[in-house]
Amino acid sequence: MTLPIFGNELEGTRCYVSNMKHAHDIGENGEMTVDFGVPMAVDAELVASFTVATGGSYDQKVKIDDPYGRNLKVTSDNAGDVLIVGRDFLGQVMTETVTCIIGLRSTNKAFKYIDRIDSVGVDGDIFVQVGDNFGLPYTAAAPIRDIVDDTIGDGDPVVFTISDQTDPASDVTGDVRGTYSPPLATLDGVEAVKVMFAFVNTRAGGLYGVRQA
Predict the structure, then answer these.
(1) Beta bridge partners of 33
(2) pLDDT tens, 162-180?
(3) For the chain, percent of residues with pLDDT exceeding 70
(4) Tally of domains in the chain
(5) I want to staple 174 with a disulfide (CB 3.0 to 4.6 A). Which of 58, 98, 108, 128 is the partner?
């Protein structure tokens, strides 16, 4: 799979609706099967690789080829902060500050679009790759089961991160809808992944969660 460059378009995105309570694709019992297609392989796709001095930026725009975005892995040669500026699948602007070590750190938020990566305190090489946590279409209560290439498993709460309801959100809060990594999937760019979730509309912000920041 590729990470295509994009312009100002946000094709296929929805608008954020505050405190949305109902969605046509969620059943009356709050359950929905989310089709992630064939997710790109972890580490196989490089979002960005650049060398920058403190205060510099990487501003080549990238679209993450997953329906609801993915978290990101950031590796740097030196310690310091990196600010990732992008958008979620709804088109909301979102930011996350990653406090880098000499090694690997991961974002908590699932980015669909990357607009800019700022080196706040890192002087040297920075590598950004896709992670293993999927963004979600709505605020999830819990995974029920995952289906990988037609093999059915049980949802595993260990790999589920609940939505961060901090309002207002900020560059250091978590994903407003939560993230999930299916335990059956190897995320090798070959397996097709579907996951059944129980979604809730009673948390802060409703089905879409609080507004991103």
Answers:
(1) 196
(2) 999 999 999 999 999 999 9
(3) 91
(4) 1
(5) 108
